[in-house]
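debug: dumping io for the single-chain case to check the tokenizer round-trip. Nothing else runs in this session.
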Amino acid sequence: MVDTDILIDILRGVRGSKEFILDLWNKGELCVTLINIMEIMSGKETRVREKREKIMEFLSKFTVLDFNKERAVLAGEVIV
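debug: decoded output
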């Protein structure tokens, strides 16, 4: 599970964030939730078509988990 703050850092090009996520990817599958996607898509950058497409392409690299109470509890235990 990747936290929205990490995703935003990557999208904004925060130093070290890309390397951080690539290191995690090399260790296994990374997941986001519908809530992560909602939070990312609520940003003002998504109003620009080109940026929106780039964000959607980035998010497509992650496995998207359905969310329910049990998974929310598990995510809280393993979130990056």
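debug: round-trip ok. The mean pLDDT is 89.
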